[in-house]
Amino acid sequence: MRFQKIFSSAAVVSAGSFISRLMGLLRDVIIASLLGAGPIADALIVAFRLPNLFRKLFAEGSLSSAVTATIAHVEAVEGEVRGLSLVRTCLLWTVGILSVFLLFAEYGSSVLVTMLAPGLTATPDVFAYANSLLKLTLPYILCIGLVALLSGVLHSRNNFTAPALAPLVLNCSLILGAGVAWIFVLPVAETLCISLVLGGTLQVVLQAAFLPKGMFVYGSWCIFDSDASLLGKRLIPTVLSGAVFQLSVLLVTVLASFQTEGTIAKLYFADRLVQFPLGLIGVAIGIAVLPALSSLAASNDVQKFGELLSSAVQFTLFLALPATAGLFVLAHPVLQLFFERGAFSPEDTAAAATMLQAFTVGLPAFAVSRPLLSAYYARQKSRVPLLAGVCSLAVTGGLGALLMQFWGGAGLAFAVACGGWVNCGVLYCLLNRQQFFSVQLRRWNLIYLLASVAVGTGCWLVVPYGVISLCSIPLFAAGYLVCLYIGKSPDARQLFALIVRR
Fold first, then answer.
1. What's 309-377 look like in SS3?
2. Number of domain units in the chain
3. Is 415 exposed, middle or buried (0-12, 13-18, 19+ CB in 10 A)?
4. pLDDT at res. 217
5. Which residues of the chain have pLDDT under 50?
6. How far apart are CA 168 and CA 89, in angstroms?
7. Where does residue 331 fall: left (phi above 0), alpha (psi -120 to 50 degrees), or beta otherwise?
8. Which residues contact 477 (CB under 8 A, 6 or more apart)?
9. Residue spans of alpha helices (H) in 434-489
10. Is-contact 277 327, C-beta < 8 A?
């Protein structure tokens, strides 16, 4: 029964994420059409990289998850009044720290560009343009910090609607900005940067609207709070462990700046397509399962904790494996459909397709890592995720520097995938040692793998038809679900039950 509630919450997050990421794809289609995959696109993506990293770290990752776990634990042990006091303290520290960071970042923006893309120093015009764009986008960091904090508070109260819709607000703002730039012949990149900050402000307003009225007006305020201090101490390792994929992409962006012009842009567009299923599956389930895991950890119910985590991991694989098979095989027609128009040439599509396939190799690991990390957050453990993250980044950096010599951008993407498997493997093995996984659930994972191979084979047969082959995706997805439902898969039956209820 508990997992049915978790699954319903995950469905809410996935629904919001699905709509948002569709709009995100539309945004990227417009950007690719207007800017292509050349130096201007490289400069814009470098300028967006730091705000996007903070968005992934905070709103979809570490800060939001850490806040959710801490508030759920405090309220379970000490009551709601104590939890609200903690929230107000976290608000003070979030605004203060990010405001100071923003001032230093604006002053040293050229240093940040050098760190994000050192290879651009060889082209001073592109470097200067990226620097000017970064200055415009930096205020978004304060907005997303507030969004992450408020989302964590809402998640701890099992309210997933507003946080799920927040990315949609941002993407709509960016699409509107791109449309205004196109219609009124304004500079596209600069208009998008301004739209980013406006969208961030609207995200904050949306989260605040779903919180109890007067939550930050009435009640005690405290600058120094023991639980807030403990949260702050755990935040740095939590940030690093919860953002392995994002930090890996940032790392390969640095390496890609030494490749030919346009490599950064192609990696970005390939990454965006991988983020689509990752957000719908891994991130959604990880967010939805965290409050329940935190409550079970606070009550020290090890058995139910393990059962819930095992179910979450199995359901993640149930969805992630066929998505991996389909996206890997259909990488080229998918890129053709979404990006091959305007300034984005067929040659750009072919290069980006190899990068997308390389990224996709790590998709199951990226997805499964999300509920595994939620288990560590719920148990207030951060050392193991930090160790796993450091190992992953070391593998990504070492392999990326080596493989880009032979395979260019595809080698960098494959290095990210390998790092993802290292991260997932370390997290899983150390949890498995503590017997947090039920043995009887493992056979279904093998069945899902074999069924996904069948899905991939079917996709391979229709690839010669080009973009038209994408029409077969609903048929393969339906066949996968129906066959597993007939085979009495618990995850397929959970999914059908939710569809019927909705």
1. HHHHHHHHHHHHHHHHHHHHHCHHHHHHHHHCCCCCCHHHHHHHHHHHHHHHCCHHHHHHHHHHHHHHH
2. 1
3. buried
4. 63
5. 1, 439-440
6. 28
7. alpha
8. 322, 326, 455
9. 442-462, 473-486
10. yes
The 3-state DSSP class for residue 224 equals: coil
At 455 the pLDDT is 94
CB of 306 closer than 8 Å to CB of 435: yes
**Tokens 């969004």 — which residue?**
147
- In whole angstroms, what is the distance from residue 298 CA to residue 308 CA? 15
Of 251, 303, 293, 289, residue with least CA distance to 419: 251
Structural domain of residue 151, as residue ranges?
A: 2-501
What is the distance between the alpha carbons of residues 420 and 431, in angstroms, rounded to a whole number? 17
In the numeric block, the tokens 């040692």 are attached to 433
- Please give the pLDDT value at position 454: 94
Q: Three-state secondary structure along 225-284?
A: CHHHHHHHHHHHHHHHHHCHHHHHHHHHHHHHCCCCCCHHHHHHHHHHHHHHHHHHHHHH
Q: What is the pLDDT of residue 3?
A: 54
* Angle of the 263-278 helix axis to the 39-58 helix axis, nearest 10: 30
94: Cβ contacts below 8 Å, ≥ 6 apart:
145, 146, 149
pLDDT of residue 283: 65
Residues 461-477 have pLDDT tens digits of 999 888 888 888 889 99
pTM beyond 0.90: the answer is: no
* Residue 176, H or E segment: helix 161-183
pLDDT score of 1: 47
Rounded (to 5) percent helix, strand, coil in the chain = 85, 0, 15
